[in-house]
Amino acid sequence: MKRFLLTLAVLLLLSWAIPGSTEKCWNLRGSCREKCIKNEKSYVFCMSGKLCCVKPKFQPKSLQT
């Protein structure tokens, strides 16, 4: 029983510790987040009001700097 409770606690902590969102944007190539991570750019907002963070390889060529 103790092993079960320990496993349950670890899984619960991991679910909180792993960042990310299931909400997608930019033709499923972007992720909706509160803040974009390194090298990502935001061009539009998601339906939830979060930023649509797009990785460099999916960014439009005319907007890359």
From TrEMBL:
Pfam families: Defensin_beta_2. The keyword ATP-binding does not apply. It is found in: Secreted. Residues 24-53 form the Beta-defensin domain. Keywords: Antibiotic, Antimicrobial, Defensin, Disulfide bond, Secreted, Signal. Has antibacterial activity. PANTHER family: BETA-DEFENSIN (PTHR15001:SF5), BETA-DEFENSIN 123-RELATED (PTHR15001). This is Beta-defensin. It comes from Felis catus (Cat). The gene is CDPF1.
